[in-house]
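Try this one yourself first.
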């Protein structure tokens, strides 16, 4: 007959033991919560009121953000960052996305090749009540994701636009029809969403990550071509899914050009300035990825590396040196200034959410002028761009405005911005993000509440 070595406990002792175990469990739970809070801590984001919604209609909150793909992280690019490892940034990224409480999230720079990264992000979105559509270019290390609340919207249609394959004019020669100077593998992701209650009309959402190159001179004509194609394809997609109603459109992402660039001016309908025309003319080159007969530069980066954002982007790189390329010839078919303007003139002109909303806020003194792009870079008042955020990318070496949120209003109805995620003060981002407790990416997210009048 066996005997237990454990002494019999009185009822009071048992109660005390249970309470002790409960306290230990609560302490472990609190410690884990503190650890989770510390890992996910970010700079709080204030929302500011822009204007009242003029009546009843569809209201939705949208955010866009470039998440900084882990495959593009390099210590030499972010020498002051203290959170370059994926595990250090991940929870900050989740919190930033969810803190916007958006109906629609447009995210750039995630890819299935980063298996642990995308497979961790998707459950977070699903648990928060989102469905998603993901798209990436062939062999591209990052892509675009559009998430939408499944209790609010259903997916009607989707499309991926591959800029390399799109034609910009007619003609017999394929090279001239495409008018491309560089094979970039960049894409845009387009979706048509309908409210689940079917009371309101649907909305077209597009997000993109346009081409970037360490040589700014190379990039200008490529960005102009891609931006023009983007607006054209969004318009075509909208007319296909809503031929009679012509649904409102939201276009957001990392455009990789600042507000004083020719691409921004053309996209928003401003005439080109003489200095923009000169920079655009100098950027018209044809790269070896389009013309294999272009001689390779000595010790040039590999094709794979040169086409990826961040590659060769060192402080010592001269901004205007163009390698593996030759000046464009008329037969290359690169779009002229006139062709670009004519192509965009035929389309509904998009309105920049931040540029229009922050103009209103500054006029009513509800936003400090230091939080606008025009506080740093002089832009004439009659042109667009001065009221974009002060920064949307802020790293130790690279500080600029590259991310935007545009809307295309339906005929006879204007989309109104009612609230806005306020930009951060510059000193809060120094010496450069990503930074623990501040932001998990090298870009700053944008967010807005939109009011769409009923048909």
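Now uncover the answer:
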């Amino acid at each position: 007959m066996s005997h237990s070595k454990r002494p019999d406990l009185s009822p009071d002792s048992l109660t005390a033991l249970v309470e002790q175990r409960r306290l230990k469990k609560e302490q472990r739970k609190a410690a884990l919560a503190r650890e989770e809070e510390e890992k996910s801590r970010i700079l709080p984001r204030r929302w500011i009121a822009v204007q009242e919604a003029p009546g009843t209609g569809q209201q939705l909150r949208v955010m866009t953000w470039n998440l900084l793909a882990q495959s593009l992280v390099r210590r030499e690019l972010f020498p002051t960052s203290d959170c370059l490892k994926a595990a250090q940034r991940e929870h900050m990224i989740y919190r930033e996305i969810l803190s916007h409480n958006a109906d629609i999230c447009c995210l750039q720079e995630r890819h299935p090749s980063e298996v642990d990264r995308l497979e961790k992000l998707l459950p977070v979105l699903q648990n928060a009540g989102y469905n998603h559509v993901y798209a990436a270019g062939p062999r591209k290390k990052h892509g675009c994701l559009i998430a939408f609340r499944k209790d609010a919207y259903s997916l009607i249609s989707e499309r991926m636009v591959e800029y390399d394959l799109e034609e910009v004019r007619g003609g017999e020669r394929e090279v001239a029809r495409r008018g491309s100077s560089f094979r970039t593998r960049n894409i845009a992701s387009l979706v048509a969403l309908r409210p689940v209650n079917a009371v309101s009309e649907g909305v077209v959402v597009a997000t993109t990550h346009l081409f970037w190159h360490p040589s700014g001179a190379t990039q200008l004509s490529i960005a102009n071509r891609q931006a023009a194609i983007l607006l054209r394809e969004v318009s075509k997609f909208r007319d296909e899914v809503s031929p009679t109603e012509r649904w409102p459109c939201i276009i957001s992402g990392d455009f990789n050009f600042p507000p004083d660039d020719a691409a921004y001016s053309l996209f928003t309908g401003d005439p080109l300035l003489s200095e923009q025309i000169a920079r655009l003319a100098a950027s018209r080159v044809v790269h070896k990825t389009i013309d294999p007969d272009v001689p390779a530069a000595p010790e040039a980066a590999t094709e794979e590396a040169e086409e990826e954002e961040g590659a060769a982007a060192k402080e010592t790189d001269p901004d205007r040196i163009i390698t593996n390329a030759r000046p464009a010839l008329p037969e290359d078919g690169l779009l002229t200034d006139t062709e670009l303007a004519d192509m965009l003139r035929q389309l509904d002109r998009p309105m920049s959410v931040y540029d229009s909303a922050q103009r209103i806020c500054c006029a009513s003194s509800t936003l400090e002028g230091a939080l606008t792009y025009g506080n740093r870079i002089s832009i004439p008042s009659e042109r667009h761009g001065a009221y974009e955020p002060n920064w949307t990318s802020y790293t130790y070496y690279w500080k600029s405005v590259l991310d935007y949120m545009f809307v295309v209003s339906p005929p006879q109805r204007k989309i109104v911005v009612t609230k806005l995620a306020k930009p951060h003060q510059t000193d809060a981002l120094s010496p450069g993000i990503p930074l623990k407790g501040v932001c998990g990416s090298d870009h700053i997210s944008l967010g807005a509440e939109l009011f769409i009048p009923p048909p």
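Discussion: The first helix runs from residue 11 to 40. Residues 301-307, 310-320 have pLDDT under 50 and may be disordered.
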